Each structure stands twice: as structure tokens, then as C-alpha cells.
Amino acid sequence: MKQVRFEEHEVPYKVLGQFGLTREMIEDLPLFALEDIGRGRRSPVLPIRVSDEDGQTVKSRTRFALVRLDDGKVDVVFYPVLETSPLEQYSEEQQKQLMDGKAILAQVETAEGRQKMFVQIDPGTRQVMSVATPIIGRNLQVLSDEMRLGSAEIRSIQNGEPLTFLVDDETVTVGIDLNDRTGLRFCDGDSQKWKEQAKREWDKYTFGCYGCWVTDEDGNLDYVPEEQYTEELWNEQKKSAERHAASLRK
Known about the structure:
By secondary structure, the protein is α+β, with helices and mostly antiparallel strands. The chain is built from eight helices and twelve strands.
């Protein structure tokens, strides 16, 4: 399967709809989320619902990503939220690093046998992500050549530590993040800002054309269509519109 740029008309809304994700829900996502989805990246963690064999509705949460199959058609891959991260094959030290949010180098069991890969936990789903070392290694080599980095600095990045340096007197930090399409994420600022950048915060209310995404105290997203708005939501929408109008007048 190959991942490329996806256009809006290619999104398989019928498949997503089978899991309770309507076209309106997707189109009401923030622009940054739609951009990520269009580039083959994983979506935010979204609520889904399906019917089991007994006709009962089962609710869960998942990310999804679009993939282009060999025949050119577009399909969906889901990354459901797990109760715990499957870390049995890693050492205690590696598990600690992974739980701390770091990307590490490790030997991973694959269908082709044990392979050396970069590994990282997706904090939103607790899924363990892995990417073959040559892919990240190539991107690190390009970075090294461009920024004239030494072997010690490259090893530091490979060990999951973000590296901070100056570019035209501006502080820049780079580190391995398997959520990024290149495996490397850049940030203007120091390592602390780099770590905070990964935690993309949502407003409590994100209004769209058809409804509103609401974030609860635990950071979970749920969707409320406009026809189900409460008085509180109508008031919040009015405030949001007023803030937007005020920002345009500045």
C-alpha cells in the first residue's frame, strides 16, 4: 500500500460512515486535522460506533488514516485505542523510555523476523508505532549533511533525545517523532517547546458548519450535530462568532 496526497473527493465516506463517522463530522474537523488526513497522516482520536453480531451498539475510539491501494483506490486503516500498550518484547529500560514518550531503536518481531526499527508509543491510542531504520536513517543523513551535525549529535537524536541548535541566530529543535510523515519533527524553540508542540490542544468547543466537536475533561472528543445543540452550545457558538468577528476588525 502506498500513501500519497489525497483529495477531498477521494475520502471513502461510505466506509467511515459504517463506523459512525459521517461526512459532516469529518468536514467539521479543524483545518490542521484535515490537512493531516489529506497527507495520509493519522486523524485525531475520534469516537466510533458499530453494531455487533447481536445488534448491540458498541462504542469505541480510534484514529484512522487514508491509504492508496495498488489499484489506485483509497481505503481506510483504523488505529483503535488500546487499554495498555503491548510492550512485552521490550526491556524494562526500553519500556520506561517508551512510556516517557521517547522514540527508541529496538529489535522488533515482524513477519520477516526480528528487525531493527525505530519505535514509539502513540499517546492517543497507546498503539506502538514502528518504522524501519533505513527510512529514518536516510532522513537523518540529509539533516546531518545540511546542518553539519556530528556523530554524537546524530546518536543523541537516534536515542530519542531532541537536539537544539541555532539557525540564523534562531533556536530550532529537531527530534524523532513517528507521528510526522518524515519521522523527524522540527520546532522553533528549545527542547521543552518541542515536547509541548506534540501535545496539540483542542478548544473545549470546535464549531463547524454542521455541528460542534466538544472536548471533555479527559481530552476525549465527541460530536454534537447542530440539531442537538443545548442552550449552552448555542450560547458558546454565539460567543465564538463574536470573537471571530472581533478578530477580523483588528
